[in-house]
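Q: Rab-like protein 2B, please. Structure only.
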Amino acid sequence: MAGDVKRIPDSEQEKYDSDEQVKIICLGDSAVGKSKLMERFLMDGYRPQQLSTYALTLYKYNTTINGKPVLVDFWDTAGQERFQSMHPSYYHKAHACVMVFDVQRKITYKNLSSWYKELREYRPEIPCLVVANKIDADMRVTQKSFNFAKKQGLPFYFVSAADGTNVVKVFKDAINMALSYKKNSSDFMDVVMRELENFDLEAKEDSGGDDEEEEEEEEEEEGKAA
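A: Structure for Rab-like protein 2B:
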């Protein structure tokens, strides 16, 4: 099913190689409130950019960390999650993940394990935060134990996109974790992807050299024929 979503070209993601830009992805079932959480955090200052060609939405956010400007791109699924699988390019170069479930819908909590498994296939080491959304519907839910995050050793937050509870904390923590990961990354997949990109670049350069040689040979043959 993931193949139904077009691959995002590397040129769209090269910017994440620079020190001052990070990519944070959101995962979770449809209608758990991922977009609402981001919009609540960004409020009037956000600029959603619908990339309908690739079935995702970017939320751009500018901030300052330790005196340095940082540009954060929050990636939202924009409907891809209905396939229960994301295109690999959604994960490519991500520096952190915010994984959301709806406390009112048990199935969205059960499905966290599937989302987490897929995340780790593509991004084995990036920080991941688990978010229990919609606690405003019944605050008693905060007394319940949700052991998934504890079992995986992940930070856990009770939040509400409706009233703003813990929303700022979640995304501020995600940004700081993403920057820390990027600075100290030893992620095997990062290394593999860098090597593949270098290989592709070298292949293109070699191909370009072959084309030039072929053109020179053609010109020589045309000269002899004349």
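A: Brief note, in case it's useful. Confidence is low (pLDDT under 50) at residues 1-5, 44-53.
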